[in-house]
Amino acid sequence: MTERTKAILLFTSYFAKEADRVYKPLSLTEWNKLVRWLKAKDLNPEHFLTGAPATLLTGWNDQSISKNRLLGLLERKTALALSLDKWTRAGVWIIGRGEPGYPVKVREKLKDLAPNIFFGVGDKELLHQVYAGVVGSRDTDENDLNTASTLGARLSQQGFGVVSGGAKGVDEAAMLGALENGGACVGILADTLIKKSTSMAYRNYILNGKLVLITPYNPEAGFNAGNAMGRNKLIYALSNLAIVVKSDTKGGTWEGAKENIKNRWTPLFVVESTEKGNVEIVKLGGNWIAKNEFSNIQGVMAARSSDRGEKTLFNSMPPTAPASTGKEPSEEIASEVPATEISVINFELKSIDLFQLFLIRWSESVGYFPISSADLSKRLELQLKQVDSWLKKAAKDKYIIEDNNHNWRLVRSFSGC
Q: Which of 20, 74, 88, 407 is the most exposed, having the fewest neighbouring CB atoms within 10 Å of its CB?
């Protein structure tokens, strides 16, 4: 863990109740406000671990966040140490918003709304693969659970992992459907990370490197309705597409779907049903998907976008591309990373070089199935020498992985789309 992440934890996280009773940790909005001020002062959070905090805060005059509150939060170092020891023994890792391993899709899509901290159990590398979000109401019957399980299995067979909320019902059924068929999963939890990571349903998949559980909340926190609603945006942000199995016209599934449609985080599909919530989500902008289409997800995405006259990675590729600007996403501590320039819903080619175009065409032509470098060069009609050069770069940037047969598999496409 970096010193920066330790400092962020002191400012923003809950520890023992006694330590949090006097000074309430900063909310995400408050933290972003402090970070902007620190940037203007050319300071980083970790400076507060070695410098004189009161001196560093000279000039801080925000009326809603007192200087005494900030200093009080920084005095919780003993509580932090005790919590870190307990969490580490439970197998919990922690990653900050500005660190390289933080999920790019979440940071790009949510920007300032991206959590400043993720707590997790399992392989962090799973956060960078290609996922379909699967969500649904807690009020489900056996048919809904079977639909979710089948959907998870079909997604895994097409190279998609499943990201969901890890709750009983649709979430768990979809995740287990994928896991039982060799797929990868991310469970974004609203509560009890440590407890759920030891459950019989998930433990073996975590140990086998197929499942990672994450949360932006204290890994020991109990259920909180606000946290459950807040994590919904994270499911959509980490997804390359999302599918609603069943929805009411109220509650977390309904609100999350509306929020996603409004913000256009990821393409949204709704399982065909007479369920009122499903019908209303489609009226708002979701797309129907029939159960017999579960085995052709990319085809469904292309067809629905084509019906609306939209360009996507799957149905419209430009013959040429303008030169790259050479600009890289910001690494600054406020994580004010520009929104992704490529959207599956509305594909606009703005600043893209030939390497990026190579990844996009790979995604469209091959999908997420293994392929040799020779076959890839034939498929894309490129010289093998050029393909080998781009493969090295793509592997270094963690867009692809090599299997035991020396075939390459795309694990995330350009800009997480």
A: 88
